[in-house]
Amino acid sequence: MEENKFKRTTVTAALPYANGGVHIGHLAGVYVPADIYVRYLRLKKQEVMFIGGSDEHGVPVTIRARKEGITVQEVVDRYHNLIKKSFEDFGISFDIYSRTTSKIHHKFASDFFRTLYDKHELVEKTEEQFCDEVTGEFLTDRNIVGTCPRCGAEGAYGDQCEKCGATLSPEELINPTNKNNPGHGLVKKATKNWYLPLNKWQDWLKQWILEDHKEWRPNVYGQCKSWLDMDLQPRAMTRDLDWGIPVPVEGAEGKVLYVWFDAPIGYISNTKELCDAHPEKWGTWQTWWQDPTSRLVHFIGKDNIVFHCIVFPTMLKAHGDYILPDNVPSNEFLNLENDKISTSRNWAVWLHEYLVDFPGKQDVLRYVLTANAPETKDNNFTWKDFQDRNNNELVAVYGNFVNRALQLTKKYFNGVVPECGELQEVDLKTIEEFKDVKQKVEALLDTFKFRDAQKEAMNLARIGNKYITDCEPWHVAKTDMERVKTILYLSLQLVANLEIAFEPFLPFSSARLREMLNITDTDWAQLGSTELLKPGHQLGTPALLFEKIEDEAIEAQLKKLEDTKKANEAANYVAAPIKENVDFDTFEKLDIRVGHIKDCQKVKKSKKLLQFTIDDGSGVDRTILSGIAAYYEPEQLIGKDVLFVANFAPRKMMGIESQGMILSAVNFDGTLNVTTVTGSVKPGSQVG
After folding, report:
1. Angle (CA) 413 414 416, round 5°
2. Where in this protein would one find the motif 'KMSKS' region, according to its record (predicted)?
């Protein structure tokens, strides 16, 4: 950051839709890196404001309301409160987390639109748009689905393909249909809307992005370039909907502001809400959004790049009074167990559920998501990697070093920081290894390389572990306590440095470590110093900073995902096509009867077969073999009345003659269920 140019930084994090909770994809893509950056700036004592909020307009919330049979307001109230609490519990340190249904936002967004309208920066156009041919309802981009023209994925939305991330328009979709009424056809009908003429600003955008911001991440710069290499088209800023902010123009009845016009303005209206409530601390909202000495940074996911780098800046430029984003550090997508995270499929790790399943382990998830941050390409989260990083890095490296240094100090010096004696070569080498940590971490954080910055912080713990292992103070204590003093003095300085270095990344652990060190605050300027803890300082009580995560906890999470997968398969099950018709005479040839299972046992040396003894009503027991051993224990079936085909020719399997076939239904997941009868039916009764 150019400190000589900017006096303060306005940091925004993408507004999540209030139609569901927050999952690890959101955290890795937006909120954890944003929080790291804000905490870092605060530690450097720079002026920074961190703005968040719920996006409560648009189609996703209306779809959720329709699905649950409740009002849209009830939906957004529920999820806004859930999201806000989840962020608070997880340590995402917003200065304000508000919502786009607030009165302040409604007025602010409405006034912003009216300013553009009065300045003739919007174009009124009547165009044909898709609507449902049965209901006549105009369909928003999110209500239209079809085949993606870029990657061929089915179920792409009219504004975006969630598989490849392409930004689309409904006209580009192949075979578009109504998402909520698949049986209804689509027709086009004329309607009037107001458009932002992006084409008018194309040359300016090319200069501003492609020439003036070559330092932006390659994924952001590249996506912007691909858009700007095409001819930009006017984009509608209003929609035919009944949920949203009414368009403040005569003749716009029944229309609301487009969610991608309304939502980013929420950053500004939320700033106004905060400043109006606490002017003594924050001053005026204009200082943060209109003063050229203020820096604006947007943290977003890659699906929002075009809106934050092209659409919103054009809105701000057309208005004329606002600063523009200085950087937009967008991440790629995070997958879950090698599959794309999906809210609609419930394929996600939800933050509010994680906080229940792993209480007190916020920092473990923060650490793993940062270590796997999809900064330059899509990345993958697995529960095994989560466990390994916790046990092998946080516990075995960071926590182990801290515990050894503090416990040895307690053992030999009653928890008092000892004096530093004469330095030996190993001491000087260790000091040399970590003296530049501040410059290294800062250089990485200033350029939004959070994954590498966290690695540098962890490297301090590796240096400390190696130092204390090489010096072996537990052995030296037998002969030279003065030397032990120096070893533990330097070890404790490294521990204090770890508390500072990890504060932006692992705030809960750093707070616990401060208690153990008996210090009250963190001074970023002192990072790299060997004089953080003075000789004679009384330390607090040592405790484990991290704890191992056992296999059972991971297996429970994998079971939850497996259950989700099965539920999705059940929900999406479509019966196989009906086979070709057969005449009645052909059916009559099958002799299907009721049989009573007198005995059932596993067939030796076979994993699949069960051997049944069937009372078929003839007075002579019948033996039937069936390949259902994977789905039933023999004792579960004894005494059941089942259906079987009686006139199949006998067939030998595993040396046993099978005299028929027991009928089973094949479930959606491939499991088999034996067909039984209800009520009392005599063995041998025919089905027909």
Report:
1. 70
2. 340-344
Taking the alpha carbons at both ends of the chain, their separation in whole angstroms is 81
Q: Where in the chain is the domain with CATH 3.40.50.620?
A: 8-122+197-331
The CATH homologous superfamily to which domain 8-122+197-331 belongs is: HUPs (3.40.50.620)
Tokens of 6: 């900017």
How far, in Å, CA of 180 to CA of 165, rounded? 22
Q: How many CB atoms lie within 10 A of CB 51?
A: 25
Close Cβ partners of 172 (under 8 Å, ≥ 6 residues apart): 149
DSSP assigned state of 301: B
Predicted local confidence at residue 573, as pLDDT = 74
**Residue 20, Cβ density class (10 Å: 0-12 exposed, 13-18 middle, ≥19 buried):** buried
For residue 379, list its beta bridge partners.
334
Give the model confidence (pLDDT) of 572-603 as tens digits: 777 778 889 988 888 889 999 999 999 999 99
Percentage of the chain beyond pLDDT 70 is 99
Contacts with 196 (C-beta within 8 Å, 6 or more apart), sequence order: 116, 121, 122, 123, 234, 235, 237, 261, 311, 314, 315, 318
What is d(CA 456, CA 610) in angstroms, rounded to the nearest whole number?
60
Structure tokens at 295: 């820096």
Task: Pick 123-195's CATH classification: 2.170.220.10, 2.40.30.110, 1.20.1250.20, 3.40.50.300.
Answer: 2.170.220.10
Query: 133-148, pLDDT tens digit by residue?
Result: 887 778 878 788 889 9
Whether the pLDDT of residue 3 is over 70: the answer is: no
Residue 338, phi-psi category: left (phi > 0), alpha (psi -120 to 50), beta (remainder)? left
Question: Using an 8 Å Cβ cutoff, are 405 and 488 in contact?
Answer: yes
Three-state DSSP at 439 gives helix
Q: How many Cβ atoms from other residues are within 10 Å of residue 625's Cβ?
A: 23
Residue 673, Ramachandran bin (φ over 0: left; ψ between -120 and 50: alpha; else beta): beta
Strand order of the β-sheet with 334-336 is: 339-340, 334-336, 379-381
pTM, 2 dp:
0.86
As assigned by CATH, the class of the 396-538 domain is mainly alpha
Residues 6 or more apart whose Cβ sits within 8 Å of residue 244:
57, 58, 256, 257, 259, 262
Tell me the per-residue pLDDT of 44-72, one tens digit each, with 9 for 90 and over. 999 999 999 999 998 888 888 988 999 99
More confident residue, 130 or 294: 294
Q: Where exactly does CATH 2.170.220.10 map onto the chain?
A: 123-195
Q: Which residues are annotated as a binding site for Zn(2+)?
A: 148, 151, 161, 164
DSSP annotation of 247 = P
Burial of 218 (0-12, 13-18, 19+ CB in 10 A): exposed
* Residue 274, amino acid: L
Q: What is the second-level CATH architecture of the domain 584-686?
A: Beta Barrel (2.40)
Question: So what's the pLDDT on residue 154?
Answer: 87
Q: How far is CA 291 from CA 76, 204, 322, in A?
A: 33, 21, 8
Residue numbering of the annotated binding site? 148, 151, 161, 164, 343
Q: Collect contacts of 558-567 with beta carbons under 8 A, ≥24 apart.
A: 558/337, 558/383, 561/336, 561/337, 561/347, 564/345, 564/346, 564/347, 565/347, 566/669, 567/346
The secondary element (H helix, E strand) that includes residue 75 is helix 72-90
Binding site for ATP: residue ranges? 343
In angstroms, the CA 441 to CA 205 distance is 33
Closest CA to 488 of 417, 432, 539: 417
Q: Which residues contact 577 (CB under 8 A, 6 or more apart)?
A: none
The pLDDT assigned to 4 comes to: 59
- Do 313 and 307 meet the contact criterion of CB atoms below 8 Å apart? no
